[in-house]
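Quick start: what a row looks like.
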Amino acid sequence: MNKTSLSLLILTAIIACQSKPDRKQMISEELNQVYQDYELMGMSVALIAKGQLYYSGSFGYENVLPGDPMTPETYVRIASISKMYTALAVMTLWEKGLLDLDTPASVYLGWELKHPVFPEQPITLRHLMDHRSGIRDGTGYGNFLRNMIDKEADIRSLFQVDGAYYTEDMFANEPPGVYFSYTNCTWGLIASMIENVSGQRFDLYCKENLFKPMGVRSSFNVMDLEPEEIAPLFRTDSSGLRQAQVDDFSSKAPVERSYPNYQPGQNGLIYGPQGSLRTSLNDLWVTANMFMNEGKANGNQIIKPATLSYFQQDQWTYDGENGDTWGNFWHAYTKGMHFIQNKANGDIIFPDRILWGHPGIAYGLLSDFYIDLETRSGVIFFTSGSQQEFEYAEGSSFYEVETDVFKVLYPHLQAIESAP
């Protein structure tokens, strides 16, 4: 081969290498197509591989008028992923011996919580965290949420039969500890227990014992963040216009939710332990990394490895009769954590591994936080709304936009993991 031919061969190889798209660029391009296909307001996605944040990207805008772009530092109301952090708060108190999962909840609430159909069977913290308390999100729950701030309501008025907000559908016909039925109102009871044993308001306890030690600015109290940092959540109305559902502070500043003379334990629902955490893609990654780093973050031991191990044990597992799966979605759950089981036509994210974490849906937002400690991999996803209605994917219990994000990420994850 002469020098000219050799030079051309080398030049061709260099051009070929330069023109081959970088994997992260490929992920961005493929996710951007998902963003466009579903006409999303904003979207953030992270791919965790080999224990590292391999990819992090955001698409779209924070608000309905194109201006500030969505970024990994944009905060959103993350919906039910919040429950995982409430569970983390419980873990810190369990480590200190201040909460026991099998002690009747009444002991920590300071008032009697009873199932009216099965009053002799105590409801425990374990039952509440596993969604097996026999409590339901009855009609009284919505009425309580609408009025609790103005009326400075006590949470017991929702769960005691003589309470102002109690309705008969707040309890089911199954006794505590038997039947899985996903609920939100019960997390207000859990937060009230956290307040009573710690002596701190729920949002402040989480700030001091979770978020500050982790080195993140996530908060259950919207007042801890600047309004311009928070993306509103959107739905599309019948005329096709996007309408902000929550966190639109463009014309009205957020206000403090706590009662003027609030006493810890009075009402754990005021800061939304069930769904009102404001967090960002970057902060969610810190949490994922903490789980994969034996409970350490920012140089601090947030929870002990043994605590995390314990809280993942004794799962409720669906046996065909012992719970409501919500259309083949909930198959295993324990203490504030959802465990993917890869059921056919159901809860599949990455089909070759069992992930755990939590999903969320509220006010136009969809969110997912799932990791696998064995392979040290995972996915974080959320969108702040869509121009379209969310539809379930064929052959899946996830929505189409979620499954399309998973389908983009999974082949890249396999390639990353197989590379030397």
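That is the whole record. Residues 400-418 form the longest helix (19 residues). The radius of gyration is 23 Å.
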